[in-house]
Amino acid sequence: MLNRPAARSLRLVLIAAGLAQLAACASGSKAAKPEPASVNALYSQLDQASQNYETALQQTRAGDMQAAQKTLDGALDQLKDASARCGNTPGCDPQRFFSVFDHLLRLKDGSFIGDETPGEGEEDTGETSSVPVAAGQAGAAGSVPEVQRSVTLLRGHQLSELIAMNGPVKAALEMWLTQWRGNLMDAYVNYQYLRQEMWPKYQQEGLPEALLFGILAKESGGKVHAVSRSGAAGPLQFMYATGLRFGLSDQDGFDTRFDPSESARANAEYMDEQLKVFNDNLELTLAAYNGGEGRMKRLVGDDTSVSFYDPRIYGQVSQETRDYVPSVLAAAWLFLHPDSYNLRFPKVDGLTSTVTLKRTASISELTVCLGSANDMPDGWFRTLRNLNPKLDPQQEQPVGTALQVPKSLEQVYAVRCVNGPWPILAADLHNAVVPVFPDPPPAAVDPVVRYTVRRGDTLGSIVRNHVSCSSETQVARMNNLKFNHVKVGQVLKLPSCR
């Protein structure tokens, strides 16, 4: 059995050999068919990017982690530039670049550059580290080995190894980067303030943070009080019965599905349970969370190695579940690789603190007097609600009430919300009285309308143009018409479609 340094060296050599083979495959077809000089230049850039990864491995062996990381990032940038120019160069095959790019991203996730090997005599358990990620840095945690492990490691497997970059996942990536981009950004900001409540629960179960973010982004966008049409509730959208099974219940009138910490704990326990059932098949576990574990067990049977995208599974689940699984995985992938998709998550200091109210105020009033900030142009209403899930946002809280707020708002509260014009204005708006009147009785509706036949009209044209809720036969019967014949000037009764 190899000792740890020898095993680590062998792993690096194998990775280097794989990269060399990948580079050879990327350029090997050029001998069979000459390529234009412009294409060859781009393929050479592809080869150089792969060689740079081997350089990074050598720098790692030498212990120069900073240089290795720089080389690694430079190679990715080189690939992105070459692949972009490939799309505008006749004869260039972009798929070569995409395949290498995808593969190298997965190698980067493996933390083979920054991974710390346990010391001699220590056991590598494969568990995640308890070292926390600095607020706002979770999506770029690759430079910190302990963080990278806890962000990406799932039961000894790198999370990216479990995400198939297929058509559905690519389509979901496009949605998150286009139509859902605003939702993704909101989810990220919301998560940063909820992170200290939710992430420790995932750490305790050895689950990766990127997965937690992916589920949160798809389920609620980080809105703690979200409720679906089917009755799923909370930031991770538990159904009532499932919530009860994992300890989420009504406590003193508060549904703990809305508690970020409790919801994350229950979700982590659910994922841990179902990963065991489905033999660490993440796709099937996510499908069970969305579509029901009973249904997934019946579909899968004993073959837990089956892909979610196998027609036997994919063709039998609902469209919602077909969309859900790749959407969660795509959001998790972007959490890991934002820069590689031209995505910039906002920098958020998610630290929170407690303020004690010096005057009565509701969350709505506090939102008015606190105003907004450069990084929170929409104001603090959602954040305050998320951090204080048990409070009715319209209910004024008495002096002495302790509220959770972003730490950056401690001084802002003292300056703006204790004295001066802003709390007075906020209270005035909050206490505005809206007149209430009983609804007027519905107006009588004539069941029929009258139409005078004009020159050129036929019964068919009248029905098509004026009656969307009836047919020629019905109108003919209402007016005792013979052979559906109408005369100019004749007044017809037509059914009212209101």
Overall structural class, as computed from helix and strand content, comes to: mainly alpha
The biggest beta sheet reads: 2 strands, antiparallel
Termini distance?
A: 82 Å
Strand order of the largest sheet: 1-2
Count of DSSP-assigned helices: 20
Radius of gyration: 31 Å
Mean pLDDT: 81
Beta-strand segment tally: 8
| Secondary structure: helix percent | 40-55%
The helix/strand order is HHHHHEEHHHHEEHHHHHEHHEHHEHHE
Q: What percent of residues are in strands?
A: 5-15%
Shape: extended
Key attributes of the depicted protein:
498 residues, mainly alpha, two-stranded antiparallel ribbon, 20 helices, extended, disordered N terminus, signal, Transglycosylase SLT domain-containing protein, Lysozyme-like_dom_sf, LysM_dom_sf
Describe this structure in words.
- This protein is mostly helical and about 500 residues long.
- Helices cover about 50% and strands about 5% of the residues.
- A two-stranded antiparallel ribbon has the order 1-2.
- Helix 3 packs antiparallel against helix 4 (about 95-110), helix 7 crosses helix 10 (about 260-275) and helix 15 packs across helix 18 (about 420-430).
- The relative contact order is 0.07.
